[in-house]
TrEMBL record:
It comes from the Eukaryota. This is Pectate lyase. InterPro entries: Pectin_lyas_fold, Pectin_lyase_fold/virulence, PEL. GO terms for molecular function: pectate lyase activity. It comes from Nymphaea colorata (pocket water lily).
């Protein structure tokens, strides 16, 4: 997400590498009803 307002709703994040949801350039992010399953690799859980 870059610049602006983002509303992220009802997503299933089961496979990500570094960030499931991230932003740059000062966005506003509202995250509701999302499910996050962390990967098994230690370095991806930061």
């Amino acid at each position: 997400c870059r610049h602006g307002f983002f509303h992220i709703v009802n997503n299933d994040y089961t496979h990500w590498e570094m960030y499931a949801i991230g932003g740059s350039a000062d966005p506003t992010i509202i995250s509701q009803g999302n499910r996050f399953l962390a990967p098994n690799t230690r370095f991806d859980k930061e």
